[in-house]
Design a protein that fits this description.
Elements: E1 18-23, E2 28-33, E3 42-45, H1 47-51, E4 60-63, H2 75-89, H3 102-110
Parallel strand pairs: 2-4
Antiparallel strand pairs: 1-2, 1-3
Length: 124
């Protein structure tokens, strides 16, 4: 399921729909559709900030799409959400633990406890 990325502008909590990237060698700001992955040197913008974007004097703004609108949830997104809800609703006892050899389980059970995690020996 797609995660919702927020606008990079300070104090803006709206969902991002566009990605801004600067090409310093060409003095160009490129504004395109929201990138698949967040990159450290690009900025995600909401529709309002993408529409009002201006570049510094002497720079050119290249808009790859004339209008940026939020994407509607796809069928895959809805199915992934339904699967997650279904999985969360299962009783905790119904989960099947993977088989671990007795020797490994014994060593792990005697290992020091770290934070809130611990290894439980199964009823093998």
């Amino acid at each position: 399921m797609r995660s919702v990325r927020q606008c990079s502008r300070t104090a803006c909590g709206r969902a991002a729909v566009a990605t801004l990237t600067y090409v310093y060698a060409d003095s160009t700001a490129v504004l395109g559709p929201l990138a698949q992955n967040a990159e450290p040197h690009s900025y995600d913008l909401c529709p309002a900030h993408a529409e009002r974007l201006t570049a510094p004097r002497g720079w050119e703004v290249v808009r790859l799409t004339p209008e940026f609108t939020p994407n509607e949830p796809s069928r895959d997104d809805l199915l992934a959400l339904a699967d997650a809800v279904r999985e969360a609703g299962r009783p905790s006892g119904s989960a099947v633990a993977p088989a671990v050899p007795d020797e490994v389980a014994e060593v792990l059970a005697q290992a020091p406890r770290r934070a809130h995690l611990r290894v439980l020996r199964g009823d093998g």
